[in-house]
Structure formats: C-alpha cells, structure tokens
Amino acid sequence: MPRFPAGFELAEALTSAARQLHGTGSPHDAMNAAVQLAVRLLPEAEHAAISEIQRGRLRTLAWTDEVVRFDADSRNGSREPIPDRDRLWTTPVVRTDDSEAAGGADALSGLGLRSALSLRLRADRRRLTVLTVYARKPQAFDDEATRIGRLFTAHVSLALDSATVREQLTEAMRTRDLIGQATGILMERLNIDAAGAFDSLVKASQRENVKLRDLARRIVDANSGASGRGVGER
C-alpha cells in the first residue's frame, strides 16, 4: 500500500485498509491494525493511538509507540494527550497545529509532539473513542490529511462495529453451550428435568449474586475435576 496516497491511489489504499480491518478477529485486533494503518495512510503522521474516555478517565486501547500510550485521569491534573478532547463529543475532528503555540508545553510539546489530529470513532452519553495521529513538527496536518483521516475513520468505525457484533455473538454461543452443560450436570446430579435444572441454576445465581455464565462455568469445572462447588453441593 503506498504511503501518503492521492486520487485513485487513495481509493485503492482505503479499499486495502478496509480489507485488512475487516479481516481482523476482534475489536482489539481491529484497533491495533487501525493505528498502524493510520501512520501509513495519513500524510506526516508519525505516531497514532486509539483512546477511550469514560467518566473522566482516559485509557489508551491501541498505540504504535510507547510515547503515545497514555493512562491518565484529567481530574487529577494529568497530562492531556488529546487536545481539546471535550470538543470531540460534538465535532468529529479536532486539529492542533502547534502544541507550543496552544499552550501545551506540559502535554504534547513536552513529549516532543507539536501537531495532532484527533478523529472521533464512537461517541455516546458515557464513552468517547478517538483515533489521534501525532507529528513532531508543527502544522503537520492540513486539510488533505483531515479529509483522508475522516475517510479512514469511517472504515475503522464500521470494522469495529462489525468485530464487536461478531465477538458478542461468539460469546453468546459460548455462554449458551456452557449453561447447557451445567444444566445437564444438574439434571443428572439432582435427578430433575431440564426446566427444573435451569430454574435451580437461575435461583442459585440470584442467591449468590453471581452471573449465570460464571456459575455455570463453576459447575462445569467442578464436574471435570477442577476446583469449585456446584449448586447441589450447598
């Protein structure tokens, strides 16, 4: 894939990036691929990171280099790696041309990063997910970089949504199978039918304040010789 593409090459590069993103197996893999692709696709980008802001806390989910890996709490006065992040709740793009000129000596410029381009991936009432690319020189990201960034993040958002749905469906299938195994064990152990076994499992889950899936796993593990106690052992 060419670096810093334009015109028809840009369309080909975005298509190639989309294939790579949708070929990943999980949201985590998709984000790791996205930050690597962002540095290759966006002109002047040297580093990239995907961060999540929730309840005032910021956590980096994927990064190309340790310099842009952050785990900060803005309420405690920690350095702010995403300039004007509050604006990203209402606008899809925030661009910083020069962190020193913007008074960011204790944040980006202190890390040797002068330019930043932050692009919103997801936003709801509680959580904001942002892809940010960084550069050491000032005014690194122009309107063309912003345009490419917005096209790219549209693909990233779709890939993340798709990967999340696949992961949820896979987890649902695993949970169903696990509960089915636990129900079968209780049927044999307590000499009851399937409905009675499932009802026993639900009541134990409520009584012990344990998720149904976790209780089912405990029963299956106990039955296979692992540590743990089943419902019928209480």
Labels describing this entry:
six-stranded antiparallel β-sheet; 5 helices; transferase; kinase; GAF-like_dom_sf; GAF; ANTAR domain-containing protein; 234 residues; 45% helix; 6 strands
Biggest sheet, in brief? 6 strands, antiparallel
How far from one another are the termini?
A: 61 Å
Elements, N to C (H/E): HHEEEEEEHHH
Give the helix/strand class: alpha+beta
Describe the structure.
This is ANTAR domain-containing protein. Residues 159-220 form the ANTAR domain. By secondary structure, the chain is of the alpha+beta class. It is 45% helix and 17% strand. It has helices spanning 8-22, 27-41, 143-190, 194-208, 212-223; strands at residues 47-54, 57-63, 71-73, 93-96, 115-123, 127-135. The chain has a 6-stranded antiparallel sheet with strand order 3-2-1-6-5-4. β5 (115-123) and β6 form a beta hairpin. α2 packs antiparallel against α3 (143-190), α3 packs across α4 and α3 crosses α5. Residues 73-78 and 226-234 have low confidence and may be disordered.
Concise structural overview:
The protein has helices at 8-22, 27-41, 143-190, 194-208, 212-223; strands at 47-54, 57-63, 71-73, 93-96, 115-123, 127-135. It is built from 5 helices and 6 strands, in the order ααββββββααα. A 6-stranded antiparallel β-sheet has the order 3-2-1-6-5-4.
